[in-house]
Write a structure and sequence with these properties.
The protein is α/β, with parallel strands linked by helices. 40% of the residues lie in helices and 15% in strands. It has 14 helices and 16 strands. The two termini are 13 Å apart.
């Protein structure tokens, strides 16, 4: 079995695909060039520049699991806004609710009836009784960290190497050879993150116990599986150990389900029987409208309630925000949870995720490529390794940026969009077997060229 890809062949294939991209996307190039007059790097948000081509594809419209670009080309969308459009684009029930609420008022800094409904539904799905709302999962994580620090009196948090929790300052940290420091690309950190954060490798129970033994960690902020360095699954018994150790050391456990909602309607928390003290989630909850929330146990809610009663004011405490819990977001969340991301929808989506992974694995085996596939529910991706990494450090070492650029561009040029930062595909309620099979055909064609 080959251990690597022929680099000269890869360079030639990548050059061919770049030429094809530029030939097929002249209008996107025009818009990108004109945008550079007023937009930093020609895009409205830095991540939008991190695509495989020399410039991003500009979208004209999107519906369901497909979108059309400004050059008139249609794509199967397996990126789905990097989970933000996991509902599919413009689901009709959510669109109707958004339009109706917008006509009645978008934001008031007062509650609406939808808030209590959504709180009850989140409790049903994730098992935590009390909820608060905000606009992004980053907000939810920031607020939860502050609350954990406040009620424990402890200064630090703990995260896992190469985790992803949005743009939370404390989480942009890595550990190389056991030495913690700011993660590569950490822009203008307000303080050295080692002052606020302990970081250990995922799946390392001994390291976790040693870090918590210092007695200064207010909370462990954890994805149920690492997702933004490629899918790194927990080993058998790891979550049991995580929960046991956090309880032993008086540390709160925060589970961030923003990506792992792919595991089912109650995320990995429900699918794997997790027992967090806090839970955070954002991205797909409102069909693309900015919305997020954080839940907490009854014990935690009581302690926070005591803290809030003792505080003279809440509007400058670092938690909240004028637009948090606005009427439009809550209306969109209710419609999404009630009609779009339903239990029945997840059954179909997870089956499609399995079909996607099976199609990729078949092509890998057929063409003798040293790759592997990982999956959580309706989210799946392939690794350029024969054995999937067991932690973030191993995952980072295994990255192959040139090969990843080629695989993404190859798929894009043939009408399939993958998530730009890794090799991830996500299923929506609107995704079909034909969409999945379209990717399988393209992937098999690419594997044949690489494995020749």
């Amino acid at each position: 079995m080959p251990t690597s890809i022929d680099r000269s062949r890869l360079d030639g294939l990548l050059g061919r695909e770049l030429q094809r991209f530029e030939r097929d996307h002249p209008r996107s190039r025009e818009l990108f060039e004109s945008g550079r007059d007023t937009l930093l790097a020609g895009v409205p948000m830095p991540w939008m520049s991190e695509w495989a081509g020399p410039y991003p594809v500009f979208v004209a419209e999107a519906h369901g699991a497909r979108f059309t670009d400004v050059d008139g080309r249609e794509y199967v969308d397996l990126c789905l806004g990097d989970t933000g459009a996991m509902t599919g684009h413009a689901p009709k029930q959510a669109v109707a609710a958004i339009a109706e609420q917008a006509a009645r008022g978008i934001t008031h800094m007062l509650p609406t009836e939808d808030a209590a409904w959504v709180g009850r539904e989140m409790g049903r799905r994730f098992g935590l009784p009390f909820w608060q709302f905000c606009l992004t999962a980053t907000d939810a994580n920031r607020f939860t960290i502050r609350l954990a620090r406040a009620i424990t009196g402890r200064p630090k948090i703990l995260v896992f190497n190469f985790c992803y929790h949005g743009s939370v300052d404390e989480t942009i940290i890595t550990a190389e050879n056991g030495v913690a420091g700011p993660r590569l690309g950490n822009i203008g950190p307000p303080v050295d993150p080692t002052e606020t954060t302990r970081v250990v490798e995922f799946n390392d129970v001994d390291a976790l116990g040693q870090a918590l033994a210092h007695g200064d960690v207010a909370c462990v902020l954890a994805e149920p599986a690492l997702t933004n360095i490629g899918i790194v699954l927990p080993e058998a018994g790891y979550h049991d150990a995580l929960r046991r150790l956090t309880r032993e050391h008086g540390t709160f456990l925060v589970i961030d389900e923003t990506h792992t909602i792919c595991a089912g309607p109650g995320g990995a928390t429900r699918a794997w029987g997790l027992e967090p003290d806090f839970l955070t989630i954002g991205k797909p909850l409102a069909s693309g409208v900015p919305a997020a929330c954080y839940g907490m146990s009854e014990v935690v809610a009581e302690r926070i309630g005591e803290l809030m009663l003792a505080a003279p004011t809440t509007d400058v405490g670092g938690i909240g925000g004028t637009l948090s819990g606005n009427a439009l977001s809550l209306a969109a969340m209710r419609a999404t949870l009630e009609h779009v991301l339903t239990d029945e929808a997840f059954e179909r989506m997870i089956a499609l995720g399995e079909r996607w992974a099976d199609g990729v694995k078949a092509a890998i085996d057929k063409h003798d490529l040293p790759w592997e596939v990982q999956r959580i529910g309706c989210r799946a991706e392939y690794w350029f390794t024969q054995t999937p990494p067991r932690n973030g450090g191993e995952a980072a070492v295994s990255e192959d940026h040139d090969l990843m650029r080629f695989t993404h561009l190859y798929a894009l040029n043939r009408g399939v969009l993958l998530t730009p930062f890794h090799n991830m595909a996500l299923m929506s309620p609107a995704t079909t077997e034909a969409d999945v099979d379209a990717h399988s055909a393209v992937f098999e064609e690419m594997a044949a060229e690489l494995g020749a």
